[in-house]
Amino acid sequence: MRRGVKRATAGLALLLAAGTPWAQDFPVQPPGGDDSPPPPIGLALPEDFLAPPSDLVTPLAILDRLVVPGTRMQLEWRPGGGISAAEIPSPVVVTRGALSGPVLCLVAGVHGDEINGVEIVRRLSHGIDPTRLSGTVIGVPIVNVHGYSRGTRYLPDRRDLNRYFPGSRSGSIASRIANAFFQDIVSHCDMLVDFHTGSFERSNLPQVRADLTRPEVLEFSRHFGNTVVLHSPGNKGMLRVAATAVGVPAVTFEAGAPARLEPEEIAQAVAAIERLMVQTSMREDPAAAEGAGMPLDPEVIARRPDPAPIFLDSRWVRANSGGLLISEVTLGQRVQSGQRLGRVIDPVANVERYILAPVAGRVIGMALNQAVLPGYAAFHLGTETSEQQAVQEAADPDTVVEDDPDPEERPDAPDPTAGEDYE
After folding, report:
1. Considering the domain 60-288 in this protein, what is its CATH number?
2. Where is the Succinylglutamate desuccinylase/Aspartoacylase catalytic domain (predicted)?
3. Which residues contact residue 271 at a Cβ distance below 8 angstroms, ignoring those fewer than 6 apart?
4. Is the entire prediction scored with pTM above 0.85?
5. What is the residue extent of each domain of the chain?
6. Residues near 404 by Cβ (< 8 Å), separated by ≥ 6?
């Protein structure tokens, strides 16, 4: 019996030593040879298991939901604590790209009557192809549903929501809404654009307002194509100021007038944001590819000059008399020093007084025809400057910021004749 076992063992050893061809994955070659054949296709090598994974895109957790890569989902945002239980929720459209990239937040309707921004964000949010997007776009077309449903700028208590960010949990209704929005939405953003229009019967040329003293904001402002860029440090409580303070570069995008939809201004703003996404590598540049669906070619992009932003200094021209304002220029028009911008007619005395341009420049904002008081800011003129000069002048701000983030008393009604930057 033992002899039989020994014979069987010896036979097995001979078979293993001989190495039958059908028992091998591929021919064994002596080590050290350069002419070794490659392993069969599909065979995993040890280094394949050790290699770091490529840009892995995971689902985005937001508003108690998971948005998987390559999809778009419309969610609902409502401040907690029953703040707006009687109101419709704010829509939040989340487009999670199939490829990795930054999170861009597009926000509008902080002032309920500024509906150009509502359409801009709606159009962009639903027009992005998530399967071709690198990163994520979070679009909130209506933040202040209270004001939007009533066609007014303010919250029901006449507070301006854009003076209360980042807010607090125990302050006024404005501060609580601001805090909830900051925690639920802004905390997910890598960059933010807040859309507004002119206020108090004024209209603005599409323009970016940014604090150019902040390097990250300055860099961000360069990506909107040939869009006007104005230095504006902003006021404490503004969404863009609060977002920038916590490391999220943010700007205000002004376009048009309140309480109306203006197709031309809307189209310009949409084009600027599409350009922003190209510049930040979130989407392909159609002009850089010879055919649809072709990936970006860095060499092609390097050879093609990008449209540069237009940096402007600005000043407001005021009416020196009261009466009926009739403009004689249009938004975007270039004017010469001494040129007539409009006239104010006293209907009682039947006297006309002209408003003249003190400097040559471009009309980037103007009051709509209406009855005005002496000192009313009527025309906003921009004078072109270099980026370097704009930054130098921005480094010496002359604005004073209040320390109280959430005043207990309801703020006084804003005086349209006292200032012009009503973001």
Report:
1. 3.40.630.10
2. 101-277
3. 225
4. no
5. 60-288, 313-394
6. none
